[in-house]
Amino acid sequence: MHTPPPPRPVAIVTGGLRGIGHAIAHRLAAEGFDLALVDLDAPGNSTDDTLTSLPASGGRARYYQLDISDIQAHDGVLSYIARDFTGPLACLVNNAGIASRPLTDVLEVDAKAFDRSLAINLRGTFFLTQAFARRLLDAPAAPGLHRCIVVITSIAAELVSVERAPYCIGKSALSTVARLFAARLAAHGIQVHEVRPGFIQTDMTASAGSNVIDQWIREGRVPMPRWGTPQDVADVVAVLASGKMPYTTGQPFWVAGGLNIARAT
C-alpha cells in the first residue's frame, strides 16, 4: 500500500516577489518547503509568473497581497495561509523593507519619510513576527518539525550612513527585535535568526547608484572583492530555516564578504 508523503512545512517570505526575497523563495522551495509569498503587488500576471518559476519539486506556492505596515491585516493573511496549506507553519522570513529614497542628509530628513520607513522596516515587521509567533505557540510542533523566524536586516544595523538615517535606525532596531523574540521563544524550541546582507546586487541597490560601492570593491574595502548576490543570502537563510544550526539563536549572520571586519589599516 502506497503511503502518501507527509505534508511539507510552510515558509512565509515577505517581499518575496523580487530580489533577495525571490531568491530565498526559490531556495526554500528546493529545500522542501511550501511557500507563501507576501508582497505589495496586486495579484496578476507578474505574481503568477513568480509562482510558476519556483522549482517543480512537488511543493506548492501561493501569493498573498499585504502591506506589512497595515498591522490590522496581519492576522487575516496568516489565517488565509494556514487555511490554504495542509502542512504546518514552520518559518517566517521577514524580508520586506524599503530603502531610503531619495538619499537625504540626516539634517534634512522629514517626519513623513521617517515614519513611512519605520512603519514598514520596523513596526510592521515587529507585529507580523508577534502574530506569527503567537500562532506557533498555539500549535505545538509535530515531532521533527523545525520552526524558526528569520529577520533580514542589513549591514546598516551596525554601519551607519548619514544619507540613510531612517533605514539605519530601522535596521538597527530590528536587530534588537530579533534578539527579543529569540530570548522569548527559545524555550519553546523556536529559533530566531538575524541575517545582515551587505552590498547585494538588486534593483533596490541599483536605484541608489553603485559607483561608490564599485570603488570600494576595487580598493579592497570589501575583503571578498565582489558584489554579493541574492543567492548568497538565500543560501544562508536555507541553512537556518532547515534547522542545521540547532544550538544558535539571536545572532547576526553577516552576508557581506567580510565588510564587517574591523581593520587597523
Characterization of the model:
The chain is of the alpha/beta class. The chain has a single domain, classed as Rossmann fold, CATH 3.40.50.720. Helices cover 40% and strands 15% of the residues. The protein contains 8 helices and 7 strands, in the order E-H-E-H-E-H-E-H-E-H-E-H-H-H-E. It has a 7-stranded parallel beta sheet, sandwiched between helices. Strand 1, helix 1 and strand 2 form a beta-alpha-beta unit. Helix 4 packs parallel to helix 5. The chain is globular, with a radius of gyration of 18 Å. The model has no long low-confidence stretch (mean pLDDT 93).
Annotated CATH homologous superfamily: NAD(P)-binding Rossmann-like Domain
Give the biggest beta sheet.
7 strands, parallel
Distance between the termini: 68 Å
Shape: globular
CATH architecture type:
3-Layer(aba) Sandwich
How helical, in percent, are the residues? 40-55%
Tell me what portion of residues adopts beta-strand conformation: 15-25%
- Under CATH at level 1, the class stands as Alpha Beta
CATH topology: Rossmann fold
> Biggest sheet, strands in spatial order?
3-2-1-4-5-6-7
- Which stretches are poorly predicted, pLDDT < 50 over at least 5 residues? none
C-alpha Rg (nearest Å)? 18 Å
